[in-house]
Write a structure and sequence with these properties.
This protein has 77 residues and is of the alpha+beta class. The chain has two helices and four strands, in the order E-H-E-E-H-E.
């Protein structure tokens, strides 16, 4: 089964702190919904752009997308 990386973009001077905090909520969602995967993180792309992400099984993607409204997604390899 394919895995999908759902991504939230944060921009501005506090993007890194915001993305780091958002990851906490993603972990809480995974636990509350008892999702099969527990892969989350955040990446600082530059000083004004950071992403938070979570990886879900493709079968769970629609439910998570509708609940959490990520900005984009990509196949996770």
């Amino acid at each position: 089964m394919r895995k999908i990386k759902l991504i939230w973009d944060f921009r501005g001077e506090v993007a890194a702190k915001t993305a780091e905090h958002h990851e906490i909520h993603l972990k809480e969602f995974i636990e509350a919904e008892k999702l099969g995967l527990n892969i989350t993180g955040f990446e600082i792309l530059n000083e004004m752009h950071t992403i938070a992400f979570m990886v879900v099984d493709e079968k769970d993607m629609i439910m998570v997308r509708d609940a959490l409204k990520p900005h984009r997604g990509e196949v996770f390899e």
